[in-house]
Amino acid sequence: MEAIAVEDLTKSYGEIKALDSLTFSVQEGGILGIIGPNGAGKTTLVRILSLLLKPDKGRILLYGHEVNSRKSEIKNLFALLPQEAKSHFYTLTPFEYIYHYLRMRGFSRKDAKIRAGKAVEEFGIDYADKIMSTLSGGMVRKTLLAMILSADAKIYYLDEPTVGLDVENRLKLWEILREKSKNSTVVITSHYLNEISSVCDNVLLLKKGRVVAFGKPEKIARQYLSQFHSKIVVFGEFTKEDYTTRRAGKNTFVYTKSKSEEREVIEELKDTGIPFKREELTIEDIFLVGDLR
User: Fold this and answer.
1) Where do the DSSP E strands lie in 160-209?
2) CB pairs under 8 A, 24+ apart, for 87-93?
3) How large is the average pLDDT for residues 241-259?
4) Looking at the chain, which residues constitute the CATH 3.40.50.300 domain(s)?
5) What is the mean pLDDT of residues 75-93?
6) For residue 71, is pLDDT > 80?
7) Across residues 179-194, what is the average pLDDT?
8) What average pLDDT does the chain have?
9) Number of C-alpha atoms within 13 angstroms, CB side, residue 125?
10) Contact 165/173 with Cβ under 8 angstroms?
């Protein structure tokens, strides 16, 4: 069943077209990652999907329900964590914050208390009785994530969910999202491309408000960078005329367009004694050598 269907979605800010006739659909379950350069339309898309912004044109269906015609019913289908989400009630504790959010979503006092307790435990919030105003930014962010994911939603929209989280809490979040995605659809935006590659079931690549690639993470790079055959990671500085190369710290990435080009580069590297390894193209390469401007 389709969880999300977007048809001809368009949104402009004055002369700037943030979304340009966007069309795609997402099946129920799993995790969808939305990626693209700054200004590609990621946040605008999430804001429209979550009813915070009206499109200029187009149609959105969530589980077959058209968004504009049944807003009261639609709002109960999803939960949203915006990129700029902040705690507004600083006198509450994390437990109280989650509890009152669940009450606002229609849960009974008993169920809200049980769910808030489970959320605190699941996220390892050992400061659940501390006042929100005394917490660090990372602690507040983790509380807000626990709050949103405590809801019994069919769709979760998470805009840059790992911002402010340390490595341990990022890994914990991905573990929780994988579990949630068994019964719900999770939509995330993120600039951490390695996380998108390893966690998401499908990836939507936006460029200037348009879908330019959509599919499994391992196939997206091949789909968008079809002009390249492979990538050679050179552990040092290396230049080769007429080849596409990019520096990445101390390393050099060499992009070959055919098997013969790959052999030529490898033979030259072996002759010079510079260490290297061959890699398949990844999502990160789209941002390095793909024309996303």
Assistant:
1) 185-189, 202-207
2) 87/132, 87/135, 87/140, 87/143, 87/144, 89/132, 90/131, 90/132, 90/133, 91/131, 91/132, 91/133, 92/131, 92/132, 93/128, 93/129, 93/130, 93/131, 93/132
3) 93
4) 1-214
5) 78
6) no
7) 92
8) 91
9) 32
10) yes
Q: Which architecture does CATH list for 221-287?
A: 2-Layer Sandwich (3.30)
Whether pTM > 0.85 for this model: the answer is: yes
C-alpha–C-alpha distance, residues 221 and 75, integer Å:
34
* pLDDT value, residue 86: 58
What dotted CATH number matches 1-214?
A: 3.40.50.300
Residue pair 32/201 in contact (Cβ under 8 Å)? The answer is yes
Cα–Cα dist 197/210, whole Å: 21
- Is the pLDDT at 68 greater than 80? The verdict is no
User: From CA 228, how far away is CA 244, in angstroms rounded?
Assistant: 9
Question: How far is the C-alpha of 55 from the C-alpha of 121, rounded, in Å?
Answer: 39
CB of 177 within 8 A of CB of 6? no
pLDDT, tens digit, 9 for 90 and up, residues 142-168: 999 999 999 989 999 999 898 888 899
CA distance 272 to 19: 49
